[in-house]
Write a structure and sequence with these properties.
Elements: E1 5-6, H1 8-15, H2 20-27, E2 34-36, E3 39-43, H3 44-53, H4 63-66
Antiparallel strand pairs: 1-3, 2-3
Helix pairs in contact: 1-2
């Protein structure tokens, strides 16, 4: 299946941020992007990879390992 190419505005909307954040990711080369002339597009798969790479997993239930509070 072909990858969908998203605009900076679409990426910002999906991430719940302003357009400045995806533009900064592009400027810092922290996300894969495609330039078509002066237009910049981000493949949907690249956005998913970026999200997966930056997802922090919980470490578990810490209360049980700390014991009882006084």
């Amino acid at each position: 299946m072909a990858d969908r190419y998203l605009t900076v505005a679409q990426v910002a909307e999906l991430l719940g941020t302003t357009e400045r954040f995806p533009r900064r990711l592009i400027a810092e080369r922290r996300i894969v992007f495609v330039k078509v002339g002066r237009h910049v597009r981000i493949p949907e798969s690249a956005l998913n990879d970026f999200i997966d790479a930056n997802t922090v997993q919980p470490i578990g239930d810490r209360r049980s390992s700390l014991g009882r509070a006084a």
